[in-house]
Amino acid sequence: MTPIEVSNLSxxxxxxNILTDxxxxxxxGDFSYIVGRNGSGKSTLVQLLLGLxxxxxxxxxxxxLPPKKGRSLxxxxxxxxxxxxxxxxxxxxVIATGRxxxxxxxxxxxxxxxxxxxxxxxxxxxxxxxPFSSLSGxxxxxxxxxxxxxxxxxxxxxxxxxxxxxxYSEKRLFETLKQxxxxxxxxxVSHDLYFTQERVNKVICIHKNQIAVHDTCKIPQTVIDELRxxxxxxxxxxxxxxxxxxxx
Length: 248
Description:
The chain has helices at 42-49, 67-70, 91-96, 109-121, 137-149, 167-180, 221-227, 237-244, and strands at residues 4-13, 16-26, 31-35, 57-62, 74-77, 155-159, 186-190, 202-207, 210-215. By secondary structure, the protein is an alpha/beta fold.
């Protein structure tokens, strides 16, 4: 099944149109950016994909299922996590909450195994007993990604994970995401249109209630200028595929 299939989707808040008759798909192996100016509808689109709100018209399928039923297949990482800095939650504690489900209050052997595996994937095992509040911005983001991964999702959606982290932390974060993308598709919301060939292969631009999907090397300069999201480094798509080991 296609991870995400959006067909003729429209959404309005009252009389205000947010998205109008948009269609796109996310395929297995994709690493995609959703970009747009503040207020363009990026967060609305994510809420629609998660089934938290319903479209005015059109259809969304998550692995062939309606969003509410497909939500369990998605690992979602919010931009920020509300927490009390004085609450002594460790890295392991935060990740472990991703295994909790309705009417389940205890962790079993499988849960503990998945938590340990996730700590390895996000390269934070040596920090697992450190307070979450003591981590750097990049380490916090990797912890939140781990919280999404520990439930063994088939799709990962990230909401602006590079906000408020330094360049080194961003590099480490994308190294982690690149490895994860070998096993599952990733959709990342961003207000920044800057990326390199190691990062994404598809860009979903939201502008004036419309969505346009581009390969990274085919984004028109007019779109970049209208979005006013800063400079972009265009890359050759064939070069991107060779770097990722794809021959087709």
